[in-house]
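Progress note, sequence design subtask.
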């Protein structure tokens, strides 16, 4: 039978054999030393790695000047370990997560790395029967939780969990086969996601996160009179829209950790809002331009209050339209990304002086500018009506305006959509308490 050996690494000795990952990557395996390594290394690096592997096989700490990076795998406990202090553990293993102290918590971080190893090097045979049963139980519980709770901690949505359960059922057909590494990669990948979720949610600890929108850290109350005053004024100018967006954002971006299903729902909600605002802005822009064509509106009189307010309305509507288009484009680029890339995007957007409030304010700009455009247009329309009209017409218009204004205020008060009055009172009282506490007045 003809053979087609892999000759990309002709300098390999007899103990090392090239292996191909199901995704196509090349890696090397030494059966006697039970050692894996990447396949994209040259002959010099391979000799260096082979010498370090010999020292590690004899449980001798390798020469630090060789800069040989390694880890041991304990398949019984599903963890990794090293023979010396691993300086990069905080970044690569713990992901800079704060409050990682308990050994049981550290175990979930190491288990997550263990499943990543099993996915990357699926050469070793795993107990697939036991793992499939465990994975099935985890998926079934996550499916039940996401169906019955709005604050599920599952890293997958309901549809994704259904497809994962179908894959698990298909894997049962080849569960006794050990020649194919594909099923080992699939099992390890899903187990990695669930182990990572347990690590980020402080599973098994007294302060574990049980709801996706709850923080495991104590909230640090900070108060600055100038910043608080500016924030209150900006919220009022933008019709308290940043507060609503901030509430939704903090339900998704909790402790700088991202829940993938909630991130997708959040982006779908933002896309629907911005797309709708784009349509409203286009209509309002056409209405403003049509208003300038009304016969009794003299656009040559640029100092007219009605003309000025129409121009302000056009500018506001155009700004809303432009910002909506930019935000939709940004959301199309990052909204469909994986949770890791989306987390990096949110971290970069919130790692500023304004924090997550800045991002919430940006997301609320299309709505706020559209509202200002409508207000300016209403003012221009009423000014144009009031400046030259009969008494009967004036009385009719004023009556309708009063009724419409009352209906709008009634909706705001009854629906509590914006909570304007309650929020304003709470912010004023909170600011007063903090100012008194800051100056030492009981």
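Output:
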């Amino acid at each position: 039978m003809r053979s087609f050996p892999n000759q990309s690494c002709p300098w390999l000795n007899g103990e090392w054999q090239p292996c191909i990952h199901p995704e196509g990557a090349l890696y090397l395996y030494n059966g006697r030393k039970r050692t894996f390594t990447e396949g994209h290394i040259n002959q010099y690096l391979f000799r260096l790695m082979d010498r370090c592997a010999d020292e590690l096989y004899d449980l001798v700490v390798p020469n630090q000047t060789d800069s040989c990076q390694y880890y041991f795998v304990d398949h019984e406990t599903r963890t990794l370990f090293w023979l010396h202090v691993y300086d990069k553990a905080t970044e690569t293993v713990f992901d800079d997560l704060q409050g990682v102290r308990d050994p049981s918590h550290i175990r979930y971080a190491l288990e997550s790395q263990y499943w990543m190893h099993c996915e990357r090097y699926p050469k070793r045979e795993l107990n697939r029967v036991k793992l499939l049963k465990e994975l099935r139980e985890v998926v079934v519980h996550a499916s039940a939780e996401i169906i019955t709770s709005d604050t599920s901690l599952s890293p997958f949505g309901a549809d994704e969990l259904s497809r994962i359960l179908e894959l698990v059922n298909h894997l049962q057909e080849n569960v006794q086969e050990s020649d194919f590494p594909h099923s080992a990669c699939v099992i390890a990948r899903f187990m990695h996601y669930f182990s990572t979720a347990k690590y980020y949610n402080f599973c098994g600890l007294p302060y574990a996160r049980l709801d996706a929108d709850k923080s495991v850290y104590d909230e640090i109350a900070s108060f600055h009179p100038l910043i608080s005053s500016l924030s209150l004024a900006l919220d009022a100018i933008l019709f308290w829209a940043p507060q609503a967006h901030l509430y939704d954002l903090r339900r998704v971006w909790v402790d700088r950790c991202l829940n993938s299903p909630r991130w997708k729902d959040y982006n779908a909600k933002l896309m629907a809002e911005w797309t709708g605002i784009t349509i409203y802005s286009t209509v309002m822009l056409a209405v403003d331009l049509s208003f300038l064509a009304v016969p009794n509106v003299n656009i040559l009189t640029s100092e007219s209050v009605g003309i000025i307010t129409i121009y302000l309305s056009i500018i506001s509507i155009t700004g809303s339209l432009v910002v909506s288009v930019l935000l939709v484009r940004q959301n199309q680029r990052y909204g469909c990304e994986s949770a890791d890339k989306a987390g990096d995007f949110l971290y970069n957007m919130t790692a500023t002086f304004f924090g997550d409030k800045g991002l919430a304010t940006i997301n609320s700009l299309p709505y706020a500018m559209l509202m200002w455009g409508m207000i300016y247009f209403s003012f221009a329309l009423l000014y144009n009506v009031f400046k030259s009209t009969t008494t009967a017409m004036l009385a009719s218009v004023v009556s309708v305006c009063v009724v419409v204004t009352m209906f709008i205020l009634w909706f705001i008060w009854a629906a509590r959509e914006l909570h304007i009055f309650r929020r304003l009172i709470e912010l004023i009282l909170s600011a007063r308490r903090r100012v008194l506490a800051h100056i030492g007045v009981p």
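The CA atoms of residues 11 and 43 lie 6 Å apart. Work on this subtask will continue into the next period as scheduled.
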